[in-house]
Amino acid sequence: MTTLRPAVAADAEAICALRRVVAPYLVHPADSVRHAMTIRAPEEHFGMYVAEAETGLSGVLAVGLQRWSSERGAGYLGLSVHPDHRRQGIGTALADLGERHLAEAGARRARVWVQAESLPFALARGYTETRRVHFAGLELRSPPVLELPPGLRFARLAELDPRQVYAADVIAQRDKPADAPTDAIAYDQWLRAFWHGPSPDLSMSVAAVAADEVVCFTAVEVDGDRIWSPMTGTVPAYRGQGLAKIVKAEALRAAAAAGVTWAYTANDAANRAMLAVNRWLGYRHIATQSAATRSFTA
């Protein structure tokens, strides 16, 4: 028998173990799960639920309203079901729960990420595929050494004032492919979620700096001998100089020196520039997921 219940901090390790089975190309530190349960503002209406079978967790759901978008009522569901427990109604029960949660929170539409085999499930529930994201991995052996153009210098994010990084992140996020714009990032929320969060390793994350301005940066999250690159961004005035490639190569070198053996990342299928950067760095395609959205009627 399977029971649905709210997740608690003690579930974090089991949630990450389940997610590693479903998506081994992602990085799943348990501290990040516990952090997510505690930092959410009330207006996000965040919830995390688990499906618990006699043998352990069989599914997990994270749901809420997007906090960094000017679009009001943009919701999301993140749903994972262990392969050994599929076709037992667990995904349907979690999706029903998540959609009720969003409807009660006033969501106008919802977005879900699905693997290729799960897309028919989403389409049957009224979702429409909107975008695709390609995941890639790289075994770190000898990352290239690249030099910055004159007038720029490397800096680890840990060496910088957080407002310098925040200013660059806000600008870079605005034209990042998304179903809802990332254009309303409050500094205090950014500090809690990113700068003071357990996921980013600020000593491995690298920026290119002109005077006191961060003009390009790449963030790195660490989980044992693996890293994940959730964001690489360049401010518009400095684009076209290859800075993303240079900065990301420097971060890979820092990770390799720290004993990391595998690096993973993802890019929207429409982001040809970053897809080309990662191919040049040696990343190889691992998987593709689809974003699918549906509207909620009043």
UniProtKB/TrEMBL annotation:
Record PROSITE patterns: GNAT
Superkingdom of source: Bacteria
Segments forming a coiled coil: none
Molecular-function annotations in GO: acyltransferase activity
InterPro entries: Acyl_CoA_acyltransferase, BioF2-like_GNAT_dom, GNAT_dom
Stretches assigned to the N-acetyltransferase domain: 2-159, 155-298
Keywords: Acyltransferase, Transferase
Pfam family, one: Acetyltransf_6
Name of the protein in question: GNAT family N-acetyltransferase
Source species taxonomy: Bacteria, Bacillati, Actinomycetota, Actinomycetes, Propionibacteriales
